[in-house]
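Q: What would this complex look like in 3D?
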Amino acid sequence: TQLLEQSPQFLSIQEGENLTVYCNSSSVFSSLQWYRQEPGEGPVLLVTVVTGGEVKKLKRLTFQFGDARKDSSLHITAAQPGDTGLYLCAGAGGFNTDKLIFGTGTRLQVFP
Amino acid sequence: DARVTQTPRHKVTEMGQEVTMRCQPILGHNTVFWYRQTMMQGLELLAYFRNRAPLDDSGMPKDRFSAEMPDATLATLKIQPSEPRDSAVYFCASGPGTGWTSGYNEQFFGPGTRLTVL
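A: Here is my prediction, written as structure tokens for the whole assembly.
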């Protein structure tokens, strides 16, 4: 069974601080995605990483896919209150399926 | 602006009643997913369709839940009879179905239906 563990589970920080969220598994994924979910809304896709070692940047967010494609990290620089939400990583279950394996989630609160 | 739409957004019902949730996937997407989200369990996959055919409903309690796609623009999730433990947020998502051959998947979520069963 493929599992994705995220850490930390909860994170409360002040505006301007940096943070990193981790997404780990013992399984290899063909691709990995990060979603952000705000209260009362559905998860919104932020990025997809496909190649081992790949790094993608989205403004203040930096996403990295591990070399072995088993783990990923999300780093936020100078966090803002608008970054508050639930961050979910999701791994593609492989070929011949469209299913995603979702991580356990990291709930981020950024205080002004 | 292509989006997945879901109705109703909120539903309060009494135990034993039938509940029907509807989803309109993004035009052109050939995969549809139903998820349930709770604080305790996180995001759970209930059912998955590809080209309107059900491929996986192993996450769904078969005795009371059913999922269908009457046509390419409508997916439904029914609960009959509903129970208090079904209270959760139910999400529909659709995707272009590229994962089948490329291993590269993306899913786009609707706003969810918040279900409360009293």
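A: To summarize the key features: Residues 31 and 53 of chain A are 12 Å apart (CA to CA). Chain A is about 0% helix and 50% strand.
Q: Very helpful, thank you.
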